[in-house]
């Protein structure tokens, strides 16, 4: 039987938030020993990524890389209803992805030592975000 | 029992096409109430993305962002057999992804209000594309 | 019953390695006829992609595109503990993704004719990488 959980997460504007323990908790609650965990964010201006969990500079540098690929307030954008970070946030979300799928083994996420799961807020201001976690397997 | 459906989609060249209703239809046909829906495109020059479904300018601006990351006819490309959009299309596909995984709850896709599912054609000309939808759960 | 397999892969530094047959082998071993195969790399400096499997120039050009989006030794990076390719490798991994999900039908991966699965090493030097393959369905 699949297990599905919904989480509300408050962000403080642009930046990453570690959600590894939240997803690990949903896997534990599912009772599923072997299978996959799927994490999905119900928004188009924040994303979910797996990246290095030790040095916070890695996530700052990721911000730098994305800010070049999809700058705030680019004069070429037509969509700017909600400000200079509006279209940039949509583009950064498409480039990094709104969902993650992770392997589950022995009742736990099978992550590498240096892997963490992060919600990446791309809007400048604080937001409330909804995440859906689905665990499948046996 | 997993449910699998194959769809043929005609594109009119570069741009996005909303496939939300198609995927929603496959979920309904599956009879699955809780689980995941996986959508996969069997090509290397078009992609599948979740993005804002209200203002078409968002998708135009996404095109602008990708056209900078992987421009047509870049002199640095070695692969140009099928024209200036050939390699650009492969690169844009890798940057945005050939598959989507979505949560299913209460027998429906659990998308946010502003989320739509799009097939993104990266070749300049019209193409026929094949999509495979797999629904898993109970 | 889900099937899970772990693979060790030696890379020879930056570049792609075809893992299609490895994943196809895990699908065959699973005995699963219809469902999905999920492939996950337990690292934050190499990624997994689906791309054109015929002309190796495509993968060389993909390298060119990524080397512009996330150059080695960028003076803006703060994280450079392991050398000029360290942060570039993390960024390229986030842009291209650490996992793949593929449809399985008739007991095989349902890939398009030109699709191959590749492990993409982003570190300059040779590495040992661990991949987890999970097959779900019936």
UniProtKB/TrEMBL annotation, chains A, B, C:
SUPFAM superfamilies: YjbQ-like
InterPro entries: UPF0047_YjbQ-like, YjbQ-like_sf
Superkingdom of the organism of origin: Bacteria
A Pfam family hit: YjbQ
Family: Belongs to the UPF0047 family.
Name recorded for this polypeptide: YjbQ family protein
């Amino acid at each position: 039987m699949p297990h599905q959980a919904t989480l509300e997460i408050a962000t403080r504007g642009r930046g990453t938030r570690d959600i590894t323990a939240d997803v690990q908790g949903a896997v534990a609650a599912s009772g599923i020993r072997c299978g996959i965990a799927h994490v999905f964010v119900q928004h188009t201006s924040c994303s979910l990524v797996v990246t290095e969990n030790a040095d916070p500079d890695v996530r700052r540098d990721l911000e730098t890389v994305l800010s070049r690929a999809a700058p705030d307030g680019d004069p070429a954008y037509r969509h700017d209803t909600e400000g200079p970070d509006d279209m940039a946030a949509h583009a950064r979300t498409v480039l990094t992805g709104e969902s993650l799928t992770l392997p589950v083994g022995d009742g736990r996420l099978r992550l590498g030592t240096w892997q963490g799961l992060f919600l990446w807020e791309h809007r400048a201001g604080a937001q409330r975000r909804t995440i859906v976690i689905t665990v499948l397997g046996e």
